Amino acid sequence: MINTVRGRLTLWYVTALALVLAIFGAAFYVLLSRALHARVDNGLRSLIEVSTRSLSNDLDEGQSIISSALSTAAELATPEQSLLIFDPSGRLLAENHPKDDFQMRLPELGSIPEEKASLYTVTELGGDGAADYRVAARRVTIPPKNVTYVLLASQSLDAVEDELALLRKPLLFAGSVALLLAGLGGWLLARKSLAPVVAMAGSARRIGAENLGQQLPVANPRDELGQLGATFNELLARLHTSFELQRRFMADASHELRTPLSIMRTTASVTLRKRSRKKDEYREAIQMMDEQSRRLSRIVKDMFILSRADAGHYPLNKSSFYLNDLLEEVARAGGLLAEHKSVTIEITNSTEADFHGDEDLLRQMILNLVDNAIKYTSAGGVVRLSLTQESDNYMISVSDTGPGIPIEAQAHVFDRFYRANIEGSYSEETVSDGTGLGLAIAKWIAQAHDGNLELARSDHRGTTFIVKLPAHA
After folding, report:
1. Mean pLDDT in residue range 181-197
2. What is the rounded CA–CA span in Å between residue 254 and residue 145?
């Protein structure tokens, strides 16, 4: 029970209530005990004062000390209090024990004060056990002879103890009932309060990789548990999206890898089916298998880059260089492919831009954009590169004069293994040469450098991609 949150909450409720009840009960008990004992002490002081005045009046009337003491003891006797009167030598003149056999002993005369009564408690051992008595002692000097007498008054504390005992029983009973009710109420309250957590735990236990789209039940989205459930549902939604992307990535990767493997297997099978072939036929078959193996290598390399990037394990080898020099280098490298397709590459604007980043990755990013632009541009078209600085950012623009990307495909151009179907933009040979990962890798490289890659424009006049990178001093 203590191992559960409900058990610990209930124990905390009961412990807190028990502590509060103990403090208030003890305080009330102590205050009442002091009040009852003060009442006994005041009664004994009053008895001493009244006895002193009665004894003084009798002596003023001419009575003897013995008769005065006897009459005072008889008149002021009560069922609860005892009174003893002694002369200056300590001889007992009068006494009155109305209720019990408690015999007060005269203390040392020098220890008895004159100004006020001295109060102390005496424990008497008897057949029924120990009994406590409260005793008041005082020396009084009575004129006209100024003779000093000793007065002792006592009262049993049994009545006080009985009253306190009557109080202890209901206090203990009420405290036990209160703790029992608090424990039961705390258990029910904790159970009701934690019921949403139990429901969410049961639902979470049934969620697996196959049903990540399932949501946890949220009873009250405004309280803390509801916010926890909503946060967990958001986490599940992100995991569901991530799993779906991974599933789609694996399916697309399998499809992309299957095509070149199928071509290579078919080529090898057809070539080996005939025992003897011409040398040119073998060369053609090997050349086709070589092209497909290179495509496989590119796909595997791109997948490896993206997988490491998704895991956050791809290191950036940063160094200082100039983006304008990198742009000119890419333009020269892309010129060979552009010349093969009769496409022109132009640098329309180039600002000197010093930058600190991974030069190899940024080169790959721009090459991917230029390669796509050349593929989507017909013979006689132009691919334009531009580098400008706007405020605190460098803007790298790659534009082509191709037919543009269809509107329905523009939202998916950065998806992995996605290739828009643009008729007349490139040959079947070029289609099979792509991997569908170039733009996804380019976007990741820009984001890895605290920048961004976006499709700025795409229509019948052509397509423009813009890379935004932060300018570093």
Report:
1. 79
2. 129
